[in-house]
Amino acid sequence: MSDTVEKPPVPQDFDALRTAILERKGELPKRLTQVAAYALDHPDEIAFGTAASIAISAAVQPSTLVRFAQHFGFDGFSGLQLLFRARLRERTSSYEERLRTLEQDGAALAESTTIFNGFVAAAHRSVDAIAAAVDPDAFERAVTLLAKSDTIYLIAKRRSYPISSYMAYAFGKLKVRCQLVGTSAGIDDDMLAMATSKDAAFAISFSPYASESAAQARMMASRGIPVVSLTDSAFSPLAECSTEWFEVVEADHAGFRSLSASMAFAMALTVSIAEKRRRG
Quick check: keyword Cytoplasm in the entry (predicted)? Predict the structure, then answer.
């Protein structure tokens, strides 16, 4: 009998590569994990950049990029990079084309109008991306899980807090019991301590991740309380402790990111939960 270990197949497209990274991330050395996180968080930069520029952005040596590619069966980094370029070709380019047009016409517009158009275009790209990224089956599982809970604990800080705050407002109007975590009295941990296995949590955090939100989500999960989360990377601390998690990467304009896709997702989840409860 042969003792040869069969090697995993070489990923043939970006989705297959992403799946392989997530399945094997626990076995990756520290530097390769660093490259994996950067690749999934910045796929466009991987597609367009040179090995040298990508290495600088990912804070690794160019040779680490080669080792990362070879770990997943490619001869070199350029072979892996082809998957990222193919991903771009397959994506709808309408919004990118709109933004380029806006930038080209910007000189003829007032500065405030250019900024407005830029943010609108970024919002379009964000919403378009999350529409394609969310798995309907996973979304349905998350809705079912949260709808059957007695109380939904909403965990968020900093940039994510407006999302949970608006969800709390909407849940109140829809007569769904929830608890917004993040009080000025500083009793968040005491509040979460009242949660039971009949409850659930929805946590939100984006890079740079709020350590308090991650700790609270981990604490809830360790007590057997299911956690659903919205975050921006498979390497987010929320992904590790969540029963279901969803990835949204907001497009930016001039370095500023809105919450367009995140808010759309949150409201769809909120209304779906209320509807699921109404139908019993």
Answer: no
List the one residue out of 92, 157, 95 whose CA is nearest residue 120.
95
Q: Give pLDDT tens digits for 36-50.
A: 888 887 788 888 888
Q: Residue 226 in contact with residue 238, Cβ under 8 Å? A: no
Alpha-helical segments (H) within the chain: 14-24, 30-41, 43-48, 51-58, 62-71, 77-90, 94-105, 111-133, 136-147, 161-173, 188-193, 211-222, 237-241, 260-278
Phi, psi of 246, rounded to the nearest 5 degrees: -130, 140
CA dist 106 and 100 (Å) reads 10
The pLDDT of residue 154 is above 90: yes
User: What value does the mean pLDDT take over residues 220-238?
Assistant: 92
Q: In the prediction, which pLDDT does 257 show?
A: 79
Secondary structure letter of residue 5 according to DSSP: P
SS3 114: helix
Residue with tokens 């290495």: 55
**The two three-digit tokens of residue 168, written as one number:** 């709390």
260/251 Cα distance (integer angstroms): 9
Report CA-CA distances (Å) from 87 to 12, 15, 133, 246, 251. 11, 9, 13, 20, 17
pLDDT in tens, 100-145: 655 665 555 667 888 888 888 888 888 888 888 899 999 999 999 9
pLDDT band for position 1 (cuts 50, 70, 90): very low
Which domains occur in the chain, in start order? 1-105 (1.10.10.10), 132-278 (3.40.50.10490)
Contacts of 189 (CB under 8 A, 6+ apart): 216, 219
Residues 6+ apart with CB under 8 A from 18: 40, 234
Mean pLDDT in residue range 176-204: 88
